[in-house]
């Protein structure tokens, strides 16, 4: 894996080679990563994995024709062959009137961004093992836990560099640490499993192993003896670890490619108040130590914080350059990039602003409802917004959490769901999409 400076130079050299081969424009993406993961189970080491890899992708444009190629071989001969292949492919590609690099005046030209995304650490496998063993031990110590799926701790680093024929060549590095533990409670046919996990940029921010393990064990035991919930229409509360998926569906529907293809349930609703006026959703690519923080997007466009939903209304689409051209708009700096794939669209560190009520206050007036802690399946129609997911969680009775329930389906339409969404005050920044506990009225529940 190269240093940032060497990665920038390598990407820029590949772009220059493509220009000399006769292309009109080009960009090159270098990506390198190294990671170590330690897995334990039942107090013993189960596996240690070390992975390192790097590659470079080249995208070339000849007129309105383009092609993308990549290689994990960074030798001089391999890169020369890569350029030759890309040029040959582009000459045969169909014309795309929206293809092209991002506008030069939108590229990131600032200094080093203060993202604090790389702590420079390199913990030894022995340290990762000790953390994993401690997390699993804490989970197994919870009364009622009978078995373990194991625990893992990982550490890694990534270097990313992008160069374009505009003369842009910038890169950055990130570190990432993850810890997870899963256990089983109960015996025989009454067993239940649950887990806890945490991912961060700095090792110092990772949940203490004992804290994470105790949470996993407690969650598993709380699920023992699930009952059935009769079908009906009722309020549903979404736990923060699953509620973010609802905002993920919103972001997918706001993406420029979905709008351009007319496959989004938000079409024609740009001016509508989709949420209650109190709802505000933020996208902040500059959050220090954020899991998706970055100074520029997958096309080199400078990123900037943005409010996605204000006073209940969306503020516009999320665009890369191609989608912006197709829609007659300007890129919003939301291009994503992975390997040789053409740029896609995605948000960065997203959070839904908390409301004034605690989760207990949010459910205080519910006579009968559902508190969802797990969602299963991918039951969403992105064109209509129809939503249906398998779920498990807890019954809410007379304003309080009652016993566990499972084998449930929760259904509705996202437009109707968003219209009644209320946020609690328990927001924590732990994921790429962070939400507090969310309440939605009138969902259809299919149970026993």
TrEMBL record:
Q: Where's the Metalloprotease TldD/E C-terminal domain?
A: 231-447
Give the species. Answer: Allosphingosinicella ginsenosidimutans
Q: Which GO terms describe its biological process?
A: proteolysis
Annotated Metalloprotease TldD/E N-terminal domain residues: 26-90
Task: Tell me what this protein is called.
Answer: TldD/PmbA family protein
Q: Which family does it belong to?
A: Belongs to the peptidase U62 family.
Q: Which residues form the Metalloprotease TldD/E central domain?
A: 122-224
> Annotated Gene Ontology MF terms?
metallopeptidase activity
The record ties this protein, via InterPro entries, to: Metalloprtase-TldD/E_C, Metalloprtase-TldD/E_cen_dom, Metalloprtase-TldD/E_N, PmbA, TldD/PmbA_N, TldD/PmbA_sf
Record's GO cellular component terms: cytosol
């Amino acid at each position: 894996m190269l240093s940032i400076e060497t990665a920038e130079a390598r990407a820029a050299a590949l772009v220059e080679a493509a220009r000399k081969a006769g292309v009109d424009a080009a960009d090159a993406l270098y990506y390198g990563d190294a990671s170590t993961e330690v897995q334990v189970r039942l107090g013993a080491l189960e596996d240690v994995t070390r992975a390192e890899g790097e590659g470079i992708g080249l995208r070339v444009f000849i007129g309105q024709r383009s092609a993308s190629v990549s290689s994990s071989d960074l030798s001089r001969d391999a890169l020369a062959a890569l350029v030759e292949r890309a040029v040959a492919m582009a000459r045969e590609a169909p014309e795309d009137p929206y293809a092209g690099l991002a506008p030069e005046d939108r590229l990131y030209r600032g200094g080093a961004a203060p993202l604090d995304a790389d702590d420079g650490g390199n913990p030894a496998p022995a340290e990762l093992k000790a953390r994993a063993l401690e997390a699993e031990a804490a989970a197994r110590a919870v009364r009622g836990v009978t078995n373990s799926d194991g625990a893992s701790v990982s550490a890694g680093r990534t270097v990313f560099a992008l160069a374009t024929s505009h003369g842009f060549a910038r890169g950055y590095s990130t570190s990432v640490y993850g810890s997870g533990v899963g256990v089983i409670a109960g015996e025989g046919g009454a067993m239940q499993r649950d887990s806890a996990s945490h991912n961060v940029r700095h090792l110092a921010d990772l949940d203490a192993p004992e804290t994470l393990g105790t949470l996993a064990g407690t969650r598993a035991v709380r699920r023992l003896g699930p009952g059935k919930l009769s079908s009906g229409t009722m309020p549903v509360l979404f736990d923060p670890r699953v509620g973010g998926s609802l905002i993920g569906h919103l972001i997918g529907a706001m993406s420029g490619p979905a709008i351009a293809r007319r496959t989004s349930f938000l079409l024609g609703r740009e001016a509508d108040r989709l949420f209650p006026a109190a709802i505000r959703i933020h996208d902040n690519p500059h959050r220090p130590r954020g899991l998706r923080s970055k100074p520029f997007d997958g096309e080199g466009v400078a990123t900037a914080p943005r409010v996605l939903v204000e006073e209940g209304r969306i503020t516009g689409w999320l665009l890369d350059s191609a989608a912006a051209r197709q829609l007659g708009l300007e890129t919003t700096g939301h291009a994503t990039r992975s390997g040789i794939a053409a740029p896609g669209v995605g948000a960065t560190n997203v959070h839904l602003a908390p409301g004034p009520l605690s989760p207990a206050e949010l459910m205080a007036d519910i006579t009968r409802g559902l508190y969802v802690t797990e969602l299963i399946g991918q039951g969403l129609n992105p064109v209509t917004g129809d939503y249906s997911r398998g779920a498990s969680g807890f019954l809410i009775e007379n304003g309080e959490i009652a016993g566990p329930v499972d084998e449930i389906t929760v259904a509705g339409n996202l437009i109707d769901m968003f219209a009644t969404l209320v946020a609690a005050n328990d927001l924590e920044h732990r994921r790429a999409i962070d939400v507090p506990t969310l309440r939605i009225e009138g969902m259809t529940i299919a149970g026993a």
